[in-house]
Structure formats: structure tokens, C-alpha cells
Design goal:
The chain is an all-alpha fold. It contains 22 helices and no strands. It has two domains: about 400 residues, Up-down Bundle (Na+/H+ antiporter like fold); about 100 residues, no CATH class. The radius of gyration is 25 Å and the shape is globular.
């Protein structure tokens, strides 16, 4: 088979696996991981390789920007305590535990390589967990904690990873030598991301062609990532701040005819990157697995199994310890109630502890190890095992576990959406209130009926019937959009509610354009 035939076959196979995953209600990365490993045992599978320096930028940058764009700063700030402990302490403890176990099992492995392995398998990919959590009724705050963790834990893990890879290339590396670069990364990356977003918004305000706008979005994402790497900054933190800054400003400037295709392309691109990452790991593993003798294979399998057990157990233990500490501090009156809510309940802690599936960041960082890195083959095999093991073991059992715990959904998003709809319709009515034309009368009547429906049914939506081009309707929709932007900026609604109303207004705006 030619390369093109393989690509077509892999993409079609991924589409089938994704449909099957939706049917059985499991995260599609679970099936992709299984298929990727199976490729390693297909005799005719091609051997595709990527430049290690390209891997992180290609696979992580777009996925991270897509997640950062949808992040709610309000919810992230409200959940800073549980998120920060998962992002910093849980990742650090997991890295240390994995490094110690790896050194015990492979005494010749340098500490730098053991630390790199720990950093590679430390960050969970909560995107797989969120895919399940959105299918069931779950407390909103629990969902936000996991989303916040998935956005930021890669930064802490890759900071350790980059330091460990650098240490492996040097015979001696003292803390005083790496401290300035770490400080620069932590302090300079957010500033660089914010400045880059502001510059980008100034450079691209008049782009009105959808294909051009989308190409520029991807080019900008890769440019920001590569520039941050070249400057010694954290590409993760820079990209996250860049995405969040864009998300706060771009919706007011972007018309629906650009935003709708852009969202669709980004969703497709993230899916394709996941497909490529999981399939490439199988192609990378086959030559490694073949060249190992049976004794080494058994030893590597032992290491991979122990590392898998460590990353699962450490996360569960940390979540349990965190919950215990929070409850003790609350009982002794040492923690304000507003902060005490950051401590997970027993049921919530069980769910968070079990949401430890690894994913594309683990695969990409393993790929990115330079050729000749100590025990690179072992690290690749172990990373693949960590991804496959957690996605299968935890990914297939998370939904039954949640259903068994019978957690209650407090549904704040539905309430915020209902309130935002009312505000949007009233703003639209006020915009055309002084227009004496017959068209304005008809439009006012339509919006009054929609307002009554919105007040009586929170699950309703904004009508988007096929209409000829209607400047009056566009004015009303623009006023409604400004109203919900104001609600988000004042944090009366979160980004989940905002994006839901934004999507409804986009459909109405496209219809009003004819």
C-alpha cells in the first residue's frame, strides 16, 4: 500500500472507531490507543517517523489552544485551590515516584532519564475524562476542576521534562544553573502570551475570508509555540495565555460566517492529531519491539506495568490526602468556607482520583525525546503502556463508576443560559424599539414571543429560520451579542453558557445574512 492509501485507511478506521466509541459511550482515544498498539503487530505496517523537535509543536500546540480558548477564567479562579494542587503537587509527586521506581528496576538508568520518564507519564489527559463526564449528570464544579487540570498540568510536567532532557545532555547541572531559566519561564511566559495575543489581534482585524482566517489561526499558533521554545520560555504557558487572551477579545470582533467554519475546522484538526499520534506510536513501537530479545522484552514489560500501577495509585492517594487535609482544616476552623469548598467530597474524590487517563501529551513528549537519549526505547514503550493501560482500565470503567455513585448535577449552566437568553432578547427588543416600520413591528412581535418562550422554557433556543438578508434583524442580533458579552465580562455567566448562546446567535446571524 502507498502512503496515501495508508493515510486514507487510518482516517476511515478512526472514524469508525469514533462512531463506535460514541455508541458504547467511552472516550474515542481508548479505541485509538488499542488500534495504535495493534498496528505494532501488523507485518506490513509502514515505518513513519517524525523529527523529535517537531512533535510537541505539531501535536500539543493546536490541542492546547483549542482547550485554552474554551476555558472560563471565572471557573478557573473559583477552583484555583484543587486545580493548583493537581497541577503542581500531584504532577511533582507522580514524577518523583515514577523516577524512584524506574531507578529501582533499572539501576543503570540516569536520574535525568528517570525524571524525564516520570514527567512524560505524570500529566493526565482530562480531555478523555471530560468526554465521559459530559455524558452523565455530574456536579459542574467537578467538571471545571478536571478541565482546569488538563489545561495547566502539561505546563508543570513539561517544565520538569525539559529540565531533565537538558540535564541528560550535560555531565553536571547545578540548581543555580537552571534556576534562572525556570524563573524566566514562569514569569516571562504569561507576559509573552498576553503580548502575542494583543499583537495578533492588531495584525488580523480585516481578514474576512474564512480559509485565510483559519490558516492564519494555525500559523499563529505554531509561531507562538516555536517562538516561545526559541526564547527559552514555557511554550505551554505561553500558548495557554495566548488562547485565553484571544478568547476574551476575539468573539466581539469575529463575525459568525468566520467563527462557525473556524470552530468546525479546529474540532476536526484536533481529532486528526489524536488519530495521527496514536497511530504513529504503533509504527514507532514495531521496530523497537522486534529488535529486543525475549529477556529484555519481559524486563521492559515489568517496568511498564510497575509504572502504570504507580501513576494510578499515586493519583488516588493524593486526591484522598487532599480531601482529608481540607476536611481537617475546615473542622478546626483554619480554612474559610469559600476555600473549603475546594476540598472534594468522598464521591467527588473517587471520581477525580479515577480520572487519570493519559493521552496525546504523554505520547508527544515521548516522541520528542532526541535520538540517543538514555533508555529512549524503554521510555517509549512505558509511555505507550501508560496511555493504553489508563485509557482501557479507567476509560472503560469511569462511566459505570459515576453512575454507581449517583452524583447529582447542580446544573448552573442551564440557569445561566436561561438568564442570558432573557437578557439577549430584551437587548434585541430595545435596539429596535424606536423603529416605526412594519418590519420592526413584526420583528418586535417575534422577539416578544421568543422572550416568553425563553422565560418559560430554559431549554429553548434562538430561532434561526431561513430568511432573506435582513439588516434590522442583524442590528438586533448585534445588540443581543453585546449584551451576553457584557454578562460574561462581568462574570454573571461563565464561558460554557456564553458559548452556548453565542452558537445560537451565530445561527440567527447567518440566517439574517440571507
Amino acid at each position: 500500500m502507498t502512503t496515501l492509501e495508508w493515510i486514507i485507511g487510518l482516517l476511515l478506521g478512526a472514524v469508525v472507531l469514533s462512531a463506535l466509541a460514541r455508541k458504547v459511550k467511552v472516550p474515542y482515544p481508548t479505541f485509538l490507543a488499542i488500534a495504535g498498539v495493534m498496528l505494532a503487530f501488523v507485518p506490513a505496517v509502514p515505518s513513519w517517523t517524525l523529527d523529535p523537535e517537531l512533535t510537541l509543536a505539531l501535536f500539543v500546540a493546536p490541542v492546547l489552544l483549542d482547550a485554552g480558548y474554551d476555558t472560563s477564567l471565572r471557573d478557573l479562579r473559583n477552583n484555583w485551590l484543587p486545580v493548583s494542587t493537581l497541577v503542581v503537587i500531584a504532577v511533582a509527586v507522580t514524577t518523583i515516584a515514577v523516577a524512584i521506581v524506574a531507578r529501582r528496576l533499572v539501576p543503570d538508568m540516569p536520574w535525568s532519564a528517570a525524571a524525564a520518564l516520570g514527567a512524560i507519564v505524570a500529566p493526565p489527559d482530562a480531555a478523555a475524562a471530560v468526554a465521559i463526564l459530559r455524558q452523565v449528570k455530574l456536579p459542574y464544579r467537578l467538571l471545571k476542576v478536571l478541565e482546569g487540570e488538563s489545561l495547566l498540568n502539561d505546563a508543570s510536567a513539561l517544565l520538569i521534562y525539559r529540565t531533565a532532557v537538558g540535564a541528560a545532555a550535560m555531565t553536571h547541572l547545578a540548581w543555580r544553573e537552571i534556576a534562572p531559566s525556570v524563573a524566566l519561564s514562569l514569569a516571562g511566559s504569561p507576559i509573552a502570551g498576553y503580548v502575542a495575543a494583543k499583537i495578533w489581534l492588531r495584525l488580523t482585524p480585516r481578514v474576512n475570508d474564512a480559509p485565510t482566517a483559519i490558516i492564519l489561526q494555525f500559523a499563529g499558533t505554531f509561531t507562538i509555540w516555536i517562538a516561545a521554545e526559541r526564547l527559552g520560555l514555557s511554550a505551554i504557558l505561553t500558548t495557554v495565555v495566548y488562547a485565553v487572551t484571544l478568547a476574551r477579545t476575539a468573539p466581539a470582533r469575529t463575525p459568525a460566517r468566520l467563527r462557525v467554519p473556524s470552530y468546525a475546522v479546529w474540532e476536526t484538526a484536533v481529532f486528526m492529531l489524536n488519530v495521527l499520534a496514536f497511530m504513529l506510536i504503533g509504527m514507532q513501537l514495531r521496530p523497537i519491539w522486534i529488535q529486543l530479545d525475549d529477556t529484555v522484552r519481559l524486563h521492559y514489560a515489568e517496568v511498564a506495568g510497575c509504572v502504570l500501577a504507580v501513576i494510578i495509585v499515586v493519583r488516588i492517594l493524593w486526591v484522598a490526602v487532599y480531601g482529608l487535609i481540607m476536611r481537617l482544616l475546615t473542622a478546626k476552623g483554619l480554612l474559610r468556607q469559600s476555600l473549603a469548598t475546594g476540598g472534594p467530597t468522598l464521591k467527588g474524590g473517587i471520581v477525580v482520583g479515577w480520572c487519570g487517563m493519559r493521552g496525546i501529551v504523554t505520547l508527544a513528549s515521548a516522541f520528542a525525546l532526541p535520538e540517543g537519549f538514555p533508555y529512549r526505547e524503554l521510555i517509549l514503550l512505558t509511555a505507550c503502556s501508560a496511555v493504553l493501560g489508563t485509557l482501557v482500565l479507567q476509560g472503560l470503567t469511569l462511566r459505570p463508576l459515576i453512575l454507581m455513585l449517583r452524583l447529582q448535577d447542580d446544573s448552573p449552566v442551564a440557569l445561566e443560559v436561561a438568564r442570558a437568553r432573557g437578557v439577549a432578547f430584551r437587548a434585541a427588543l430595545e435596539e429596535i424599539d424606536g423603529d416605526p416600520s412594519e418590519a420592526a413591528d413584526l420583528l418586535r412581535q417575534e422577539y416578544r414571543e421568543l422572550l416568553m418562550q425563553a422565560d418559560g422554557s430554559p431549554d429553548g433556543g434562538i430561532a434561526a429560520t431561513e430568511l432573506p438578508a435582513d439588516p434590522l434583524r442583524r442590528r438586533a442580533i448585534r445588540a443581543a451579542r453585546n449584551a451576553i458579552l457584557g454578562l460574561r465580562n462581568s462574570e454573571e455567566i461563565g464561558d460554557d453558557a456564553f458559548h452556548q448562546i453565542e452558537e445560537e446567535l451565530d445561527r440567527a446571524e447567518l440566517s439574517a445574512e440571507g
